[in-house]
Specification:
By secondary structure, this protein is an alpha+beta fold. Helices cover about 40% and strands about 40% of the residues. The protein is built from nine helices and twelve strands.
Amino acid sequence: MIFKKRLKTFLMALLFFAAAGSAFAVEEYVSAVYKEIDIIFVQKADKDLENILRQNVDDKYYYLMENYTKKKVRRLIIDNEYEFAMTAIYIIIDNNIDGDFEDEDAVDLYAAIAEAYEIQRQYEEDQQKKALAEAAKKEEEKEKIRTSVEKDYNVTTTAEGKTVYLSSKDERSQNYRWNANFGMIDFGVTTAKGLTKPLMDEGISLDVTYEYTIPKAIVIGGDLFFDFKFMAFNNGPMNFNFEIAPKVAFPNLSQHIFLRLGFSDLGILKSRDESVLARNKELAQNQDALYGNVVSPLVGIQFSNVKLGNVALNFDANYLLSGLISGDYQAMSFRGNLSMPFAELEKVKLVFNFGARDTLLIMKSGGVENHLSAILGFGVENVIR
């Protein structure tokens, strides 16, 4: 009896350990399949996933393998990797078609993934279109800048194929200067021997300057001046005066000192008709005053565009050769003005202009005739970058 009892206990223990060993073997096998599925999902190997599920479709633990695969699919959905998630779910569905049941959970999951994938695809497509549009816009802006730069700079290509932009192509933008000043108030005072009181008149004027630099060689240019005194006081005559003077400077000596050669109206006491002299006995009796429209050659020196802070100074002194030719008088003229900018645009700046002009005649007999004009106006000049 004791022997039979011990034998029964031994056989039950043996069956228990055999069953435990079998259960352990099953768990080990499923774990091995899980590891293979892990590798498949890392490598996105759809063929390997299809093979391993098909090989184990009849296994009684297949549902565990399938559930593990679905778990991996859900992980992909969280990571927005919809494409392989759809492939994996489709393999699960296809693997069950030959079976006796339909995996409704897998079908629903596939539909959800397909919808999410379409949303993501549409979003990515919209983002791509937006990125392409922005890239095209930036490229268009670059092209505009490149075109603008190529207009202003010389372009060359290095041996390595790189594009290099050299010095400005439009060198004139740096090498020329111009300004035009309109004198809204051009007030003149004339004094001469024999006049008990000065003659006064008022009008308008225009003063234009242009200078062009040939680098390391020469600066050439010219000055034009016109004024018209149309309001006369003290019986003085109306006056129209002008000056035209080409000029030259040598940058190696100075960029601002010019030699001038040209022609100038002396601005002397001119009688436009006999009625003016009849109205002004002083003029008629003044033997030292010159009459007539005298235009004289001139030679002079000029200081041009000398910067005093934000203000530009221009000054010139000229000798008028007509007096030397006639021998009756000596004539000189002087001009000075200050230009003060008050507004700057892209290519030009606006300036206030304060100036004075004076023509001095010293008669052979000792008389002196002086024509002084004070000019107040505004002007415009180019901006040099």
